[in-house]
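Lab meeting, item 3. Inverse folding demo.
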């Protein structure tokens, strides 16, 4: 039986890869800052992640081929075909694509719910006083439940990635350096310069800080003083 020759193909741009790893770091930071009640730091990290996610959603419309939703979001038929015959793909496979969409949705809901909650001591989300009490209460309950759900999905995602990596589908390496072994006749996806993505991140972050920076920075500086005093 003739073995199919594989060659390394660049499938992910820098924007997709850095968004992925920054998201991991920021989610860890958001969890820890909430546990320590460092709410200024927590909000700053939340606005950073929101900027990265907002830019990623835009990049999913105008970015590199493998970053675009139309490239990796599967139709039901494509999902069934992949589950029947798990062949390597140039980009996110249909199952991981569903996980990515679920995580995008949960991160967005976490950010939106955080804007409507309060710690009932020092910190109120900027929308807390603008929404009815029932919605603020619902948002507060979801903010805790949703984060636990998101952590559960992250664990499943990591285990699945490890399983694929050990099975020969080098997905972790691909998300690190962007290359993945694929059949020699695979057409390399069209990747764009990621500078536009990072400009989008900066624009969104500056917009959010222009909106809420005067409330966030004093709390963040207070948190830094607490951390330095430890």
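The presenter then showed the designed sequence:
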């Amino acid at each position: 039986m003739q073995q199919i020759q594989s060659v390394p193909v660049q499938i992910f741009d820098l924007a997709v890869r850095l968004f992925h790893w920054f998201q991991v770091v920021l989610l860890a930071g958001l969890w820890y800052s909430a546990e320590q009640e460092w709410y200024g730091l927590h909000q700053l990290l939340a606005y950073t992640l929101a900027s990265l996610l907002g830019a990623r959603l835009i990049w999913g419309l105008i970015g590199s081929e493998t970053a675009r939703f139309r490239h990796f979001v599967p139709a039901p038929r494509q999902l069934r075909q992949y589950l029947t015959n798990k062949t390597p793909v140039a980009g996110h496979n249909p199952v991981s694509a569903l996980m990515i969409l679920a995580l995008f949705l949960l991160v967005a809901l976490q950010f939106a719910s955080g804007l409507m909650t309060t710690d009932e001591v020092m910190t109120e989300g900027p929308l807390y006083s603008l929404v009815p009490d029932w919605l603020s209460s619902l948002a507060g309950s979801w903010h805790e439940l949703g984060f636990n759900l998101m952590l559960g999905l992250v664990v499943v995602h990591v285990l699945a990635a490890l399983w694929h990596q050990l099975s020969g589908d080098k997905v972790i390496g691909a998300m690190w350096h962007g290359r993945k072994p694929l059949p020699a006749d695979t057409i390399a996806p069209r990747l764009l310069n990621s500078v536009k993505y990072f400009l989008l991140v900066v624009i969104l972050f500056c917009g959010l800080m222009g909106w809420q920076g005067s409330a966030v920075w004093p709390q963040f500086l207070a948190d830094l003083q607490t951390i330095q005093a430890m």
